[in-house]
Amino acid sequence: MFRNNRLFRLIISSCLDLAPILAVVLVFQLAVIQQPIPNVAELIIGSLFVVLGLTFFMLGLEQSLFPIGESMANAFARKGSVFWLLLFAFCLGFGTTIAEPALIAITTKAADIAGGAHLIADNDAAKTDYALDLRLTVATSVGVAIVIGVLRILMGWPLHYFIIAGYFAVTVMTPFAPAEIIGIAYDSGGVTTSTITVPLVTALGIGLANSIKGRNPVTDGFGLIAFASLTPIIFVMAFGMLA
Amino acid sequence: MMTWLQHFLDTLLETGRDVLPIAAIIIGFQLLVIRKPIAHPGKTLLGFINVLIGIAFFLEGLKMALFPLGELMATQLTAPEFLNIADSTAAADWRNYGWVYLFGACIGFATALAEPSLLAVATKAEEISGKAISALGLRIAVSFGVAIGIALGTFRIVTGTQLYFYIVTCYAVLIIQTLFAPKFIIGLAYDTGGVTTSTVTVPLVTALGLGLASTIPGRNSLLDGFGLISFACLFPIISVLGYAQLAEWRAKKRNSNHS
């Protein structure tokens, strides 16, 4: 009975999450653009799917992604091997980013721009190479970001020094980077963190902060994703300057 | 019905392929390095399947209902006929794009509120802070940030000003805020910047940016279409830090009134 109640609550909250999008779309379509909604049936079925999807996602989150992230953080902390923890951190960052669909889309577009601007040869082989190199660059940068983030939690270094240093690096590098790469570099920071990576990485950070003495999960546990959205900007601009 | 099932299975397979490297890393490290079985294998597997099905349904629903409509609206809103732009002088005037800014802000707010990654981080934050941080409050603060970010981002595309200038100004504001904000919120605030833009926001916002860049003369749709996402990443950090500062300031004021 309790389980049913929880499921019911999840469904209700998913409906509430979706409501603002529907409201914006309907109001603009009917009142501002003043056009009829093209496919009412598809809109209704699609919305039902979104609600179902959010409900299943939240259910699975509590059952698997959060506990697994935390239990692995605990196991690594008990094992006490910094090397394996950092290797795990790198693999997690690299592995989740390399397959990210949003990243694949953005690197393909970036290769088109580079081809059009004659930075690289304007043919398919050169573009495919360029897009793959860019993807590897971003994936490596996210791996490095999670490693730095985990090291920070282990050592208890304050987050803001890193962020300020990162911003400083971005600010100094931008005037020297090719103009074509700047927009892509800034955007690549945002697309690297997917729906599965975020809960897992968050749980890893909080689990680590929980199992190390003297760390506060609220102050020290967050910040891994912050690095993962900052280092790609730096790495992609460096890539643009070197390529 | 059959084509629909085919679509859904495709999406499920695609999501499965994205999850594969993550599952391989977790299982590999669990077996080879930690060398302990996973605590509740059945429950964990079920949870993974739930996450997979959830994401597949979510994406399929978005593809079916919201993306086509959102993209259609983005093109309709940025069409010269709708905006009443007769010639290039009118097109160059940023005041003619009021509806675009408003739509950008509204859709940014609404999509950020429904973003599953943000939901995950906010839930976790509420849980570990012992409800000191409210999940809904956090999500609303983030959504406001995304709304402002997208509105300003569309303004930038319309005026054709340098992306660099805006970003550096944001960085300066952020650094100052970071020095004065309560310490517990900093990590969380910076994390929310990265999680706001994934499944829902990116496609809709990209369509808006590309539509806008192709309407305005002198804009390159490939070059100027980029940059909106970085706005949507930076402004939530500012709004969450601001929200925390405001909350702290009000608490202080209340305390000094009492004493």
List the main descriptive attributes of the protein structure presented here.
heterodimer; A: 243 residues; mainly alpha; 2 domains; 10 helices; 83% helix; B: 259 residues; 12 helices; globular; membrane (chain A); transmembrane (chain A); DUF1538 domain-containing protein (chain A)
Itemize the secondary structure elements and their pairings.
The complex is a heterodimer of chains A (243) and B (259).
Chain A: H1 2-32, H2 40-79, H3 82-98, H4 101-116, H5 124-155, H6 159-173, H7 179-191, H8 197-211, H9 217-220, H10 224-242
Chain B: H1 2-34, H2 41-78, H3 80-83, H4 88-92, H5 98-113, H6 116-128, H7 135-159, H8 163-180, H9 183-195, H10 201-215, H11 221-224, H12 228-258
Helix pairs in contact in B: 1-2, 2-10, 5-7, 5-10, 6-7, 6-9, 7-10, 7-12, 8-12, 9-12
Radius of gyration of chain B, rounded?
22 Å
Number of strands of chain B: 0
* Major sheet size, sense and barrel closure of chain A: none
Which outline of chain A best applies? Answer: flat
Mean model confidence by pLDDT of chain B = 83
What's the alpha carbon Rg of chain A, rounded to whole Å?
A: 21 Å
Description:
Chain A: This is DUF1538 domain-containing protein. Chain A: Keywords: Membrane, Transmembrane, Transmembrane helix. Chain A: InterPro entries: UmpAB. The complex is a heterodimer of chains A (243) and B (259). By secondary structure, chain A is mainly α. Chain A has two domains: 1-59, no CATH class; 81-242, no CATH class. Chain A contains ten helices and no strands. Chain A has helices at 2-32, 40-79, 82-98, 101-116, 124-155, 159-173, 179-191, 197-211, 217-220, 224-242. In chain A, helix 2 (40-79) packs parallel to helix 8 (197-211), helix 3 packs antiparallel against helix 5 and helix 4 packs across helix 5 (124-155). Chain A is flat and about 55 Å long. The relative contact order of chain A is 0.12. The model of chain A has no long low-confidence stretch (mean pLDDT 85). In chain B, helix 1 crosses helix 2 (41-78), helix 5 (98-113) runs antiparallel to helix 10 (201-215) and helix 7 packs across helix 12 (228-258). The longest helix of chain B is centred in the N-terminal third of the chain and has 38 residues, at 41-78. Helices cover 83% and strands 0% of the residues of chain B. The model of chain B has no long low-confidence stretch (mean pLDDT 83). Chain B is globular, with a radius of gyration of 22 Å. Chain B is mainly alpha-helical. Chain B has helices at 2-34, 41-78, 80-83, 88-92, 98-113, 116-128, 135-159, 163-180, 183-195, 201-215, 221-224, 228-258. At the A-B interface, helix 1, helix 2, helix 3, helix 4 and helix 6 of A face helix 1, helix 2, helix 5, helix 6 and helix 8 of B.
